[in-house]
Every structure is written in structure tokens, then in C-alpha cells.
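PROTEIN DESIGN WORKSHEET
SECTION A - STRUCTURE
LENGTH: 269
C-ALPHA CELLS:
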């Protein structure tokens, strides 16, 4: 290709309207490989430093909300685990793959409730990002959403500096207790309906940093343990403030974050 035509190549992804090969090949999540009839070695769950792997008879389950993508399971047991595309979930239990049977009804109910509260947000949203104790990795992925490759403005998604203008609260970090009060004030200042997204393994479960004197077990625990935010309700319908969408990954990929934002808008399932 002549040098003067290189600048004319399209760099902005057209996902979700069109498939994106980079999204389909990025190792953003770990999923167990089902091998019916084969016994599962008892030592496999111990390979995970965060306890994300569990065994149920002859089946393995991976809690993607606790997986930090250290690759240990894939390297040591390539016949048992593989990389897949991360998918945000509208229910915390659905991050356990393969999905547990009892979560199917809960998924339908949660999706219906989320659709009811966000039916007015389908065209455009403003997002307020809150760092609640992140190591900085999640923020790099959030920042990537603004570059020419992802260009979230093309989808009507914008970041705002004020929670008073926010439709979506995007929270990263392990949920440090020092951020409990600022997060509560942010929740109180935001209008309703408000969609809360826990972005990344740290925000979902605390990652490697399990609950300590300085951190909670993720954003959900931090919100529930904060009296001001736990008691906050929607102005119109009394909906309690809670985490609505969980985005796995350590850190979550820009495509996973974009998927979560479109899920909040009701434009993806």
C-alpha cells in the first residue's frame, strides 16, 4: 500500500454493528472446558490464587468475577481451561461459568427490571467514573474508550465530570473504605434512574486483595455497607441503589466496558 494512502484506512471499530476480529481474539476471560465422564483432579481448584475455580462432581466452574487472568490454570491445565470473550452480566451469579441452573430465572427478572429503569436512556448517556481504590490498570482501559479505535461518542456515550449530569456510574477499584463517603455522596447527587456498573475483578470481588481493614470485598459490599448510599432510592419509583452490571476482567477490556455501557442503554443483551 502506498504510504500516502495509509492515513485513509479506517481505524475506528464498527462493533457492535459489525464484527471486530480483535474483540473475538482478545483473551479477556477464562472458561472451563467441559469433559463429560472424566474425573476432575482434586488439585485443580488450588491452582487459582483467588479461589475462582470450584469443582462440582465431574464439572469445573470458574467465577470470572474473581479471576485475575493470571493464566495459571490455562498454562498448567490447557485441556481443562481456555480463553474466551468476556461478557458483562446483569447478575453477579452469572459470572460463574458454566452458569449454575438456578440463575436462569434470576437473569430474566434482573434484565426485565433493568430494561424498565433504563428505557429512557437508549439514545445517549453520560457516564461518571469513580476510582474506588484501583491500581490504575482499569483506568487505562476506560481511557481507551475515548481514543479513535473505540470512539464511544459515535454511540452517544459521553463522560461527565459531575455526578449530577450522570446516567451511569462506572466504578473501578477494590472498594477502599476511605472511598465509602465520597461514593455515597456521588450516589446521592446523581439523578434517577441511575445504572451502577462494577468494572473489573477488583470492583466485583476485591481481586487479590480480599476484604481487609482498609478494603471491602468489592463495590457491591461497599455500597451495601454505606448507610447513606444503601438508603438512597430513586426519586420516582423508590428503586434502591445497587450494582446493576458486572464487568469481568483484570483489567476489563475496552470492548467489555463498551458492552456493559450498551447493556445499560438497553441496546445489547
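SECTION B - SEQUENCE
RESIDUE ASSIGNMENT:
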Amino acid at each position: 500500500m502506498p504510504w500516502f494512502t495509509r492515513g485513509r484506512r479506517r481505524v475506528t471499530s464498527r462493533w457492535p454493528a459489525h464484527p471486530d476480529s480483535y474483540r473475538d481474539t482478545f483473551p479477556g476471560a477464562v472458561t472451563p472446558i467441559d469433559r463429560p465422564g472424566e474425573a476432575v483432579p482434586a488439585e485443580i481448584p488450588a491452582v487459582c490464587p483467588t479461589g475462582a475455580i470450584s469443582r462440582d462432581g465431574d464439572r469445573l466452574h470458574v467465577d470470572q468475577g474473581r479471576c485475575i487472568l493470571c493464566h495459571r490454570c490455562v498454562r498448567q491445565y490447557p485441556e481443562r481451561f481456555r480463553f474466551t470473550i468476556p461478557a458483562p452480566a446483569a447478575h453477579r451469579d452469572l459470572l460463574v461459568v458454566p452458569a449454575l441452573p438456578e440463575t436462569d430465572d434470576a437473569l430474566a427478572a434482573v434484565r426485565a427490571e433493568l430494561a424498565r429503569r433504563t428505557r429512557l436512556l437508549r439514545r445517549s448517556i453520560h457516564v461518571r467514573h469513580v476510582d474506588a481504590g484501583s491500581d490504575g490498570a482499569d483506568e487505562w482501559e476506560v481511557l481507551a474508550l475515548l481514543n479513535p479505535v473505540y470512539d464511544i461518542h459515535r454511540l452517544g456515550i459521553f463522560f461527565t465530570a459531575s455526578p449530577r449530569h450522570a446516567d451511569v456510574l462506572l466504578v473501578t477499584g477494590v472498594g477502599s473504605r476511605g472511598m465509602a463517603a465520597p461514593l455515597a455522596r456521588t450516589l446521592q447527587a446523581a439523578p434517577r434512574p441511575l445504572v451502577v456498573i462494577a468494572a473489573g475483578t477488583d470492583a466485583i470481588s476485591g481481586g487479590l486483595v480480599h476484604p481487609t481493614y482498609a478494603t471491602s470485598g468489592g463495590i457491591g459490599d461497599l455500597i451495601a455497607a454505606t448507610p447513606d448510599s444503601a438508603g438512597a432510592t430513586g426519586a420516582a419509583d423508590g428503586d434502591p441503589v445497587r450494582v446493576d452490571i458486572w464487568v469481568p476482567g483484570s483489567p476489563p477490556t475496552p470492548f467489555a466496558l463498551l458492552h456493559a455501557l450498551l447493556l445499560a442503554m438497553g441496546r445489547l443483551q
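SECTION C - NOTES
The longest helix spans residues 103-117.
Strands lie at 29-32, 53-56, 59-63, 81-84, 96-97, 125-131, 157-159, 168-172, 195-199, 245-247.
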